[in-house]
Design goal:
- By secondary structure, the chain is an alpha/beta fold.
- It has a single domain, classed as 3-Layer(aba) Sandwich (Rossmann fold).
- Helices cover 31% and strands 25% of the residues.
- The chain has 4 helices and 6 strands.
- The protein has a 6-stranded parallel β-sheet with strand order 3-2-1-4-5-6, with helices on both faces.
- Strand 4, helix 3 and strand 5 form a beta-alpha-beta unit.
Length: 110
């Protein structure tokens, strides 16, 4: 894997901090993070942005940062592709987002 698409729920208070963390981890792992344009309001800094509809052809995997709604949004965007989605829970329950924030770095490495 080389390119990781990021779909972020901007309404989560820790979204910007998690975005910075995931970018740092991607740098160590030699992965290129790109932001899907549907979440363009975040403090994304220097991240490349791609149209969300093009994610399937431009990324090797997607990380959905948020909750179940974010995971469902990512699944809808990628429904016609075989791109895997890693759901990271930034909320309380997260039935579909199976990775807790504390395990984000290990999940990316795996």
């Amino acid at each position: 894997m080389k390119t990781i698409g990021l779909i972020i729920n901007e309404d989560k208070p820790q979204a910007d901090d998690v975005l910075r963390r995931i970018c740092d981890t991607c740098k160590v792992l030699k992965l290129e993070p790109v932001l899907c344009e549907s979440m363009a309001g975040t403090q994304a800094g220097k991240l490349d942005m791609i149209p969300a509809g093009d994610a399937g052809g431009r990324v090797d995997a997607v990380v959905a940062l948020g909750g179940d709604g974010t995971m469902l949004h990512a699944a809808k965007l990628l429904r016609h592709t075989s791109v895997p989605i890693l759901g990271v829970n930034l909320g309380k329950l997260g039935f579909l987002t199976s990775i807790p924030l504390e395990q984000l770095d290990e999940a990316l490495a795996a």
